[in-house]
Amino acid sequence: MSAEGPPPPAARRGRPGRLQVSARPSTKTGIALLHDEVSGHAYDVRLKLTKEVLTIQKQDVICVSGSGPSANHRTVTLRRQPVGGLGLSIKGGVEHGVPVVISKIFRDLAADQTGMLFVGDALLQVNGINVESATHKEVVHLLKNAGDEVTVTVEYLREAPSFLKLPLGSPGPASQPGSGASSPLFDSGLHLNGASSNTAPSSPSSPVANEPKYEKRWLDALSLPLSMARVSRCKAGADTFRSSAIQVQALDGASSGPLQFHTAQERADWLRMVSANISDLMLRNMKMANKCCSPCDQVIHMGWVSERLGGAGSSQTFRPRFLALRGSSLYVFISPPVSTLDWVRAEKTYHLCEVLFKVHKLWLPDDCWAQASLSLGLQDPDGGDHGPFCFSVLVGHGGSHVFSVELGSELAAWELSFQRATFRAVQRTRSKTYICSGQGDTLCFTVDFALGFTCFDSKTKSVLWRFKFSQLKGSSDDGKARVKLLFQSLDTKQIEMKELEFQDLTAVLHCIHSFVAARVASVDPAFMDTQSIAGRYMSS
Questions:
Q1: In Å, how far from its chain's centre is CA 411?
Q2: What phi and psi values does residue 190 have, to the nearest 5 degrees?
Q3: Torsion of CA 36, 37, 39, 44, to 10 degrees
Q4: 81 CB neighbour count, 10 Å cutoff
Q5: Do the beta carbons of residue 412 and residue 535 sit within 8 Å?
Q6: pLDDT surpasses 70 at 466
Q7: Among 47-61, 73-87, 93-107, 358-372, which stretch is predicted with the lowest mean pLDDT?
Q8: Which terminus has fewer CB within 10 Å in the chain: N or C?
Q9: What is the pLDDT of residues 244-273, one digit of tens each?
Q10: Alpha-carbon distances of 469 from 301, 436, 454, rounded to whole Å
Q11: What is the dihedral of CA 52, 58, 60, 66, to 10 degrees?
């Protein structure tokens, strides 16, 4: 671990801080709570975000001068003062499953004057008596009756639950009158800091000149590269989204764990900043990948999403998936492709002409589906995105995937990228032909970017009918295999109905939609902007 400089004042005193910007504009720091899902406790960590790495730092006490013993164990002598006593408060105890920890140190009193005790120090010994397995009440009694000179051995508890620490000099919770039971939240300062009847004036507790000097500093505990990393409020396999926490997972599987924030605004700020850095690195990776690809096989967009599994009930689960729009295909990966050979590992591959992208629903925090007029969901009262934002990818044979992203800007980027990738796929493909049947005959139905719709006999290849895209006035289908296409004759202006039956009707309908939209966009370049639901949301 590498040592950081002295922590900012709010962090040094154990007070959760708001987002801070360091001297270097590209580096941002802030305090969060790291939730331990095993113990259920949360403890303070410091986040340091650069363009390429998120570093999680934990506080520790280190020896900065002198040749004393390891900072892990420190032995300090306190001289009880007539006013203020030992000048500290404690919390915890073996009965609560946590060590006895110094929760407050009062400024300029005995404990503070030593310069060797810190909030978060766990008591190991009091006057040579081991207290690691002692109850809260036993340690209070021992300290209170230890005399005017008290020697304590301590060890800084790096992952002490946050409720065991209080800011320096802040008031602790009051005890219940007449209650003999202790609590891990109960602060015993009043019992420890009163002067005993035989206490005489004593010299202040102060560091000896030759004693080592200790400081509490933030030390690097975990560094997460952001290239191809994933940030989300959704834990894989979970049925709910965390409203005030995010989790960052690196490409190698290393994870930050759930990082909790005190307000939705802080969570939203960190989510946006980490997402922005990941997006910048993703764009760089795309440019590098495209150097090895032909012009018709370029990566247009890629990134992490969460895929919703199960039905529309209350038992939905989510799993991370990596999507990529490359050439004329949509790729669905379990893990990102990092080499040219990895592209054959895709879990699913779909031709873009035969899929339909749909921004259709918004996943609300109360786990209810609601029709999304996205212009109504601007920001929550705390300034954060409602998110996550959902979109569907409808594929052949009536199949579909429901994906979600955390930010409205990500949804807008996916929508625009799907439109561009699909239009380019249509222009490269030029035409698609499907086997179908009509009136008992085996036919071929072709959708052509230049000619429109053509139906011909599969054996003789003779053309039975042909219509331009502009002549298609409507359609209806049975949801299974049969479709009725309504065309307007250029000569008579009468509507002609053509009924066909396909093996995969969904793919054909998506193809028709893609070709018609691409044809319109080729004539009217502004057409894509008018079709962007998420884009209108972002601009509003």
A1: 15
A2: -65, -35
A3: 20
A4: 21
A5: yes
A6: yes
A7: 358-372
A8: C
A9: 789 999 999 999 999 998 888 899 999 999
A10: 29, 19, 11
A11: 0
Tokens, residue 110? 């005995």
Residues contacting residue 309 through CB under 8 Å, at least 6 positions apart: 316, 317, 318, 319
Question: What is residue 397's DSSP assignment?
Answer: G
Measured CA to CA, the distance from residue 375 to residue 3 in angstroms comes to 47
Rounded Cα gap, residues 332 and 363, in angstroms: 21
Instruction: Give the pLDDT score at 533.
Output: 60
Asked whether the bond before 388 is cis by omega within 30 degrees of 0, the reply is yes
- At a CB cut-off of 8 Å and minimum separation 6, what does 364 contact? 370, 386
CA distance linking residue 169 with residue 171, whole number of Å = 7
Q: Which amino acid does the sequence have at 496?
A: E
Q: Which residue has the higher pLDDT, 475 or 236?
A: 475
Q: How many residues does the chain have?
A: 540
> Residue 329: pLDDT above 70?
yes
Per-residue pLDDT, averaged over 201-230, amounts to 78
Q: What's the pLDDT band for 523 if we cut at 50, 70, 90?
A: confident
CA-CA-CA-CA torsion sign (267, 273, 279, 282): negative
This prediction's pTM? 0.78
And the tokens for 425? 């796929």
Report the candidate in 239, 240, 257 with the shortest Cα–Cα distance to residue 248.
257
Could you give the angle at the alpha carbon of 330 between the alpha carbons of 249 and 374, nearest 5°?
75
- Cα three-residue angle 161-266-162, rounded to 5 degrees: 10
Q: Whose CA is closest to 87, among 103, 71, 74?
A: 103
Q: Where are the alpha helices (DSSP H) in 133-245?
A: 136-144, 189-192
For 459, other C-beta atoms within 10 Å of its C-beta total 10
What DSSP designation does 204 have? -
H helices then E strands: how many in the chain?
A: 9, 30
pLDDT attached to residue 73: 87
The overall longest dimension of the chain from CA atoms, in Å, is 116
Annotate 494-505 with three-state secondary structure. CEEEEEEEECCH
Q: Which amino acid is at 389?
A: F
Please answer whether residues 128 and 9 qualify as being in contact, where contact means their C-beta atoms are separated by less than 8 angstroms. no
Q: Smallest Cα–Cα separation from 480: which of 460, 452, 508, 459?
A: 508
Among all chains, which residue has been given the structure tokens 């691409």?
Answer: 518
